[in-house]
Amino acid sequence: MPAAPPVVLTAFSGEQPRVIPRLMPETAAQSARDVRLDDGGLTPMRSSAVAVTGIPLSWKSIYNYLGTWIGWDNVVNAAPGPIAEDRLYYTGDGVPKMRIGSTIYPLAVPFPLDPLTAAITVAGAGDIVSRQYAYTYVTDFGEESEPSAISNAIDWKPTATVTLSGFLAAPAGRAISLQRIYRTQTGSTGTGLYFIAERPASNANFVDNLAVTAIAEPCPSISYNAPPDDLEGLIALPNGMMAAFVGKKLYFSEQYRPHAWPEKYILTMDYKIVGLGAMNVSIVVATEGQPYLVSGNLPENMTSQKIEQNLPCINKRSIVDLGYAIAYGSNEGIVVARADGSIGIASANIFDRDGWFELNPDTMIAAQLNGRYVSFYDRLDPQGTRERGALLLDLANPNFLARTATYARAVMYDIGKSALFYAPFDAGEVRQMDAPSASRLRLYWKSKEFVLPYPENYGAFIVDTVDDLVPLDEDAYQAQVAVAQAVNAVLIAAGSIGGDIAATPIGVYSVDGDSLTEMPRRPGETMTVGIYADKKLVAGVGVVNRAVRLPSGFRARTWEVDIYTDQRIYRMTMAKTMDDLKRQP
Q1: Cα 513 to the chain's mean position, in Å?
Q2: Are residues 571 and 456 in the same domain?
Q3: Section 546-568 average pLDDT
Q4: Of 8, 149, 400, 471, which shows the fewest CB atoms inside 10 Å?
Q5: Would you say residue 297 has pLDDT above 80?
Q6: Burial class (CB in 10 A: 0-12, 13-18, 19+), 378
Q7: What are the E-state strand segments in 443-519?
Q8: Could you read off the pLDDT of 322-367 as tens digits, one per residue?
């Protein structure tokens, strides 16, 4: 009978966990906790770092705007503007809005509601030309409204003077400072409105005695429309465009004109839109029915294609831009859609349908962290115990599930910092998840079941680590030591640490205990490996980078390994004999 081959357990061994569902606390054997899947193998996640304190507990959306954390009590979609660095555009908090510094404006620029009245006040001579007028408002930020309704027509002759009346004072609240006045002119391509003058916003009359040759550019805002008040789901696109939706209708802004949303660009889907995600020049439109892929590089040439997959989006907060794809929650699991139109259930190897629904996917809050899908969930187990946490899945290679106890009520992924920030449900703070400068957590990981064709005994085992400590770990450790020492110094200087006999009531401290802060645990000191044969724990290993012998005298067909550590694990190898172990590269 040939010898059993070595069992190599690594994060990249092609492991296929069995269906993991029903994530019961610490009993989901083939899942991992507080662990990242890095090129070096298994790496403990780091704890969170506080970015800011004092934010309201009511915030459901957060955004780092020019270095300051802002937020909203509603689910808001915010996107930086394609024009100036200080402009932020967002929907979901009433009408669409634009923020510049500390000032918030409605995104829509109002246009003049009433037409002008044109009258010839100095007669001319020559051929008669029919002429009409309109005007627009212009803001301090260069945004131009759609024009007013067209004025009455007049029979104009050369050298005639026309007086325009009926100008309306600019409405307040939108920083409108200018008016632009246009008049009609007919050419080989038809009749259009052409610019003749710009002046400070006023309700004073205007006298037009400009020569025909003074006319310059056509009115650029002739087809502009203000964004609908109920516009939602705002995202930024390439080429200065933005997109959002109302019901089944997908809207696009003019290039580099986020205040203008021409109705001529609207695309209508078969189903109500839930949310949007952008990839290159394509948009994944997640709906209550089949998804769509909308592509194009200009608002006037966007085209839509229905993806023939019955994969509705059940939660707008589950939509995440992963960079290489758009992911969202459906009835079947986590959907991944790519710019080439391919789509599928990326979590099929991780969850079955029942297990997925036990996590309440319709209430999940999702984001990304280094290309991985992070989904914060809140559920009750069958015993009625509340469980909150986060799932981390690499949807490009969806055979590995990690989870952590972190739970968020609001999230933001900062591309520039490659960092996921979140607001905890129980604290008025913004924190960075898995902060590089924070201390390591202890990870827990369990392998799949390795089922042999016949019972065998594995007698040798080794855990290979990448290293025990890196400079970031040492810095975090020394910072924790300094904090603990400072706290203890205050207690000692006060004259009592609570350890004196009868100094405190019974039960406040453990026997021989006191109020001093315990010195932090040095990173790299935790390592516990369990070896399971036919579901029974048969050995424990607590050393690294050194081969150890496992118990003999029995055989088993099913072997598993789990590990609890704060070290970075490169590989775990189990073989029948020490000689077999030595032959591993």
Answers
A1: 45
A2: yes
A3: 90
A4: 471
A5: yes
A6: middle
A7: 443-446, 450-456, 460-465
A8: 988 999 999 999 999 988 888 999 988 788 888 888 889 999 999 9
CB atoms within 10 A of CB 563: 22
Q: Is residue 222 part of a domain?
A: no
Clarify whether residues 342 and 429 are in a common domain: yes
Same structural domain for residues 104 and 235? yes
pLDDT at residue 464 tops 80: yes
pLDDT 10s digits, 471-526: 666 677 677 677 777 777 777 777 766 655 545 555 444 544 566 766 666 666 78
At 432, the amino acid letter reads Q
Contact at 8 Å (CB) between 313 and 337?
no
Q: Which two tokens stand for residue 317?
A: 């907060």
∠ CA(27), CA(30), CA(32), 5° rounding?
Answer: 85
- Give residue 513's pLDDT: 55
Query: What is the identity of the amino acid at 563?
Result: I
Pair of tokens at residue 20: 């993991």
Closest CA to 308 of 327, 286, 292: 292
263 and 225 in contact (C-beta within 8 Å)?
yes
Cβ–Cβ contacts within 10 Å for residue 532, how many?
19
pLDDT at 16 over 60: no
Question: Which residues fall within 8 angstroms of residue 352, CB to CB, at 6 or more apart?
Answer: 19, 21
Beta strand 32-33 with 401-404 is parallel
Q: Is residue 226 part of a domain?
A: no
Contacts of 89-95 with CB under 8 Å at 24 or more apart are 89/234, 89/242, 89/258, 90/63, 90/234, 91/231, 91/232, 91/233, 91/234, 91/244, 92/61, 92/232, 92/234, 94/229, 95/229
The total number of residues shown for the chain amounts to 585
Are 389 and 424 spatial neighbours (Cβ–Cβ below 8 Å)?
no
Give yes or no: residues 104 and 244 share one domain: yes
DSSP symbol at 144: B
Q: Residue 250 carries which DSSP code?
A: E
CATH number at residue 272: 2.130.10.10
Question: What pLDDT is attached to residue 101?
Answer: 93
Query: What percent of the chain is modeled with pLDDT above 70?
Result: 85
Within 10 angstroms of residue 397's Cβ, the number of other Cβ atoms is 13
State which amino acid sits at residue 355: G
Q: What strands lie across the sheet with 117-122, from one edge to the other?
A: 117-122, 161-165, 206-208
- Output the pLDDT for position 143: 96
517 vs 15: which has the higher pLDDT: 517
Average pLDDT rounded to a whole number, residues 46-72: 94
For the record, the structure tokens of 244 come out as 């959002």
The residue among 453, 463, 408, 467 whose CA lies nearest residue 433 is: 408
